[in-house]
């Protein structure tokens, strides 16, 4: 009888073990790819020794070769170097947007759950109202008022993505409110502000970090979309969005490489960040 039960347990745990192994392998692969992408974005412009904005019309629209691995654009600029510079800008903006969203979402979500009652209901209705508006549409409205401003791009993405973080943090704080050490802190005379600072915010930090990592792909795509629509960075400032916008006319003239390499890098970067986020999320859920 016991051997039958053990065999059943092995059959039940076998698929779970395989899924865990595949998830771990995917996370490792995502981290490795992300390190390569970040190294490419950081070190290639530094080691190139040339200005990526320098034009050379005699070398315009050259296909990929040993001298120019990603080809050249309409102004003769090396796309291998220019794409690295654009990727660095897009990643920097995405990280700043995610951090701003995390800070705003954690603060609002924690305060809302800590105060509870009418305040919590009002905050949640505001969150529902923001979520009801398409994020891209709201981002376009914000960026259109300050076209070409990096600050406006960061603000537009942060102000439309903090709600997801706020919901996650609020749910975590509602769970923490019933913990014994929190109730003991109130009994000992701690104020809501002290409990928020000492227990709620530190207790939700892990969830906030996970939410921030999961926001990175959204931030990358939103920045690229805004720049592609001509509402983000100026055309002379390389980013994944501006390079994809330039590729529109290049493809019509046979310059397929101007579209393929930025689009492929955008897709690979997004998948790598998503794999890292899923790995962090699974580890967090496993500990819980």
UniProtKB/TrEMBL annotation:
It comes from the Bacteria. SUPFAM superfamilies: MetI-like. Its main location: membrane. This is ABC transporter permease. Residues 87-277 form the ABC transmembrane type-1 domain. Keywords: Cell membrane, Membrane, Transmembrane, Transmembrane helix, Transport. It is a multi-pass membrane protein. It is found in: Cell membrane. It comes from Arthrobacter gandavensis.
């Amino acid at each position: 009888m016991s051997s039958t039960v053990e065999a059943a347990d092995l059959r039940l745990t076998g698929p779970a073990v395989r899924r865990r192994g595949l998830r771990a392998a995917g996370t490792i692969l995502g981290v490795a790819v992300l390190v390569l992408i970040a190294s490419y974005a950081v070190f290639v412009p530094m080691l190139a020794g040339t200005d990526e904005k320098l034009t050379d019309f005699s070398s315009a629209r050259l296909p990929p070769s040993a001298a120019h691995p990603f080809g050249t654009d309409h102004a003769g600029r090396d796309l291998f170097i220019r794409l690295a510079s654009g990727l660095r800008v897009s990643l920097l903006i995405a990280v700043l947007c995610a951090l701003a969203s995390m800070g705003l979402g954690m603060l609002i979500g924690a305060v809302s759950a800590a105060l509870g009652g009418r305040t919590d209901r009002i905050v949640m209705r505001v969150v529902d109202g923001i979520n009801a508006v398409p994020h891209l549409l709201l981002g376009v409205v914000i960026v259109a008022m300050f076209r070409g401003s990096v600050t406006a791009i960061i603000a537009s993405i942060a102000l439309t993505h903090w709600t997801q973080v706020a919901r996650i943090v609020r749910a975590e704080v509602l769970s923490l409110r019933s913990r014994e050490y929190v109730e003991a802190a109130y009994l000992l005379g701690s104020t809501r502000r002290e409990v928020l600072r000492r227990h709620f915010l530190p207790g939700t930090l892990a969830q906030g970090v996970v939410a921030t990592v999961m926001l990175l792909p959204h931030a990358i795509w939103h920045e690229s979309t805004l720049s592609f629509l001509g509402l983000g960075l100026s055309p002379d400032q390389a980013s994944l969005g501006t390079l994809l916008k330039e590729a529109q006319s290049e493809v019509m003239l046979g310059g397929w490489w101007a579209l393929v390499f930025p689009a492929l890098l955008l897709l690979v970067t997004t998948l790598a960040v998503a794999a890292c986020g899923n790995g962090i999320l699974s580890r967090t859920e496993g500990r819980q």
